[in-house]
Amino acid sequence: MIELKTDREIQIIRNNGRILAQTLSLVKENLRPGIRTRELNQLAEDFIKRQGAYPAFKGYRDFPASICVSVNEEVVHGIPGERIIQDGQIVSVDVGVFKDGYYADAACTYAVGQISEQAQNLVQVTRRALDESFTYVSEGRHLSDLSHAIQTLVEENGFSVVRDLVGHGIGKRMHEEPQIPNFGPPGQGVVLKKGMVLAIEPMVNAGSYEIDTRDDRWTVVTRDGSLSAHFEHTVAVTENGAEVLTLES
After folding, report:
1. In this structure, is residue 249 part of a structural domain?
2. Count of helix runs (H) and strand runs (E) in the chain
3. Which run of H or E residues covers position 229?
């Protein structure tokens, strides 16, 4: 069942989204060649806790860190550790925040130094796909309309959307109904209603959409070794369309 949120509940998620956005900004400021991914994790965890919140990923289904840091061919769920960030990489950072009984979730892919033209295009197209999806978030539209919009933009630019991982509803639980694929035909399935809160997250590969999971049981990678990018926002359906809740202000 899809849980519709009240204005009060959306305000709590919005507050948490602000903390999350500030966390991502802090990580971006410190993301540079030579830093270890565990250092980024510690910076994020410390900041979230200083805001009186909790890093939602830590311990979630036994995940061992507070944020996900996924580099180059890593799609999502990269575990921070001793890996040293290098010039020319793209780094996807996924963060969850829990406070006052509710979750917020967002992700961004960053360029480290000079990256290839393909990597630049991949990151730009993935961000554009997320932004494009917001135009389809309004009462009375089908959820699959935004899924189709993401797929269309991505494939028109020569990339592919991951099929085995999807976005999700969010609120009192990290993952709620509905599931939100990044592909499919329009005009089908769930009809959007005011009060729905959605974590929309296109995951886009430069090559094939096929993925594998490494032996750590978490890190998802492209099967063909191609680059991958990931953007995500927590979004509320309002009478005026989409409101992005994971912004700094």
Report:
1. no
2. 4, 15
3. strand 228-230
Burial 198-219 (b: 16+ CB within 10 A, else e): bbbbbbbbbbebebeeeeeebb
Number of domains in the chain: 1
Q: Is 1 among the domain residues? A: no
As given in the structure block, the two tokens for residue 226 are: 């191609």
Dig out the tokens for 83 from the structure.
């890996």
Q: What is the pLDDT of residues 58-91, one digit of tens each?
A: 999 999 999 999 999 999 999 999 999 999 999 9
Q: In this structure, what token pair is assigned to residue 69?
A: 């840091």
Q: How many CB atoms lie within 10 A of CB 228?
A: 29
Give Dmax over CA atoms of the chain in angstroms: 49
Collapsing DSSP states into helix, strand and coil, what is residue 123? helix
Select from 133, 207, 192, 214 the least CA-distant residue to 166: 133
Supply the range of the domain harboring residue 94. Answer: 7-244
The full DSSP string for 79-146 is: PPSSPBP-TT-EEEEEEEEEETTEEEEEEEEEE-SS--HHHHHHHHHHHHHHHHHHTT-STTSBHHHH
Task: Please state the pTM of the whole predicted model.
Answer: 0.97
Q: Which of 203, 18, 246, 206 is nearest to 92 (CA)?
A: 203
pLDDT digits (tens, 9 = 90+) for 158-187: 999 999 999 999 999 999 999 999 999 999
Residues facing residue 244 across a β-bridge: 235
